[in-house]
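As described in the Methods, two query proteins were run sequentially through the folding procedure within a single session, without resetting any intermediate state between them. The first query and its resulting structure tokens are shown here.
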Amino acid sequence: ALEAVRRIAAAVRVPVSADIETGYAEDAKGVGDTVRAVLAAGAVGVNIEDALYGPEQAGRGGEPLRAVAEQAERIAAAREAADSAGVPLFVNARIDTYLRGAGDLAATLERAAAFLAAGADGIFVPGPVDPATVKGLAEGVDGPLNVMAGPGAPSVAELSSLGVARISVGSGIAQAAHALVRRAARELLGTGTYESLAGGLDYGELNTLLGKGR
């Protein structure tokens, strides 16, 4: 993951934010170590989520989310690591209450307040895109709100009017690209036609795009 961050940061002229999942660490100190390594790789922003997975989740009786106080401690460690390095790191605290079916609006806002107090700069709540919930989140979160959008979600302009400051599409673009590859291959092998290839970029444009940032 760190090598990927280094390659991306070296290839672009804009600030890079790295998704470090749950912090790649068992405790708060380890999260701080991860953040220092991410900063050294060239990123100036991170996403840190509060979900539990695999053995760690099983070891806690199947709880889907980390306890609020424990997650706040991990966020505080990320903030302290960045401050010590003299980097104004943007810490985007991801809250998976909706994504994991582990809480409602009130629970999400409770977590958001604790994480902002611990040093987070923004709150990321993937899952809800219905206007009423998004508006409630935007009004209740005392910081920039990030949501995840995709097909069927309100437009960027609509989400902005509801108070959203940042919109992510996650892996959606990559998933769409892979779907196109599969459609084109099935068409070629099935009907023997090539209509799925329409609208592709020509070599000149691709070379120009891939050459930027070098």
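Immediately afterward, the second query was submitted; its sequence and tokens are:
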Amino acid sequence: MSTNYSLLFYLKKPKNYVSGAKPIYMRITINGSVCEISTGKNCDPNRWHSKANRSKGNTEEVKTLNSYLEMLNLKVAAIHLEILKMGKTPTIELLKAKLTSKSENQKTLLSVLKDHKLKMESLLGNGFRENTLKGYRTTYSHLENYITKEYTIADIELRRIDHSFIVGYEYYLRSEKACSDISAAKNIKHLRKIINL
């Protein structure tokens, strides 16, 4: 691998930032050209180790976050190596295009959930009840709000859903939505079904 390639993770200060977690970005440099891409993850500045480009701590959430960042690091390195093996000159534009390219087979959480709701609506009284559909509508609303709040995006790819996402979602249900144990469990059950689909 050429020596003119580097990648680092850093916390980017959002506009009108006051306090709390900051989004984690990765800065890729090739031959002096630089691009910055959001990782879709956040971290509290007090927990960020800038020299290590990772979060500090031994909690399961920190381990999951750091594993995700390492996976991204390896993915970018693999793409860079792939470009070299193809006999092409690695450029920021080429690497970014390969990294951010969307596959038609990549499903997003809310799109799958929306499709499931539509199928349920068409089968009301024939395998599905109104109360069940109402529960999935509520789950859709909760997930939509959670994704927007925590990830500042409209939807999230299913492959990006990890332990950290689920733990954060359950905490969101209990804290911000004040869901009971039973209600939170039902929403998590709905999420599990959509992921399985």
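Residues 60-85 form the longest helix (26 residues). We note this only descriptively and draw no conclusion about the first query from it.
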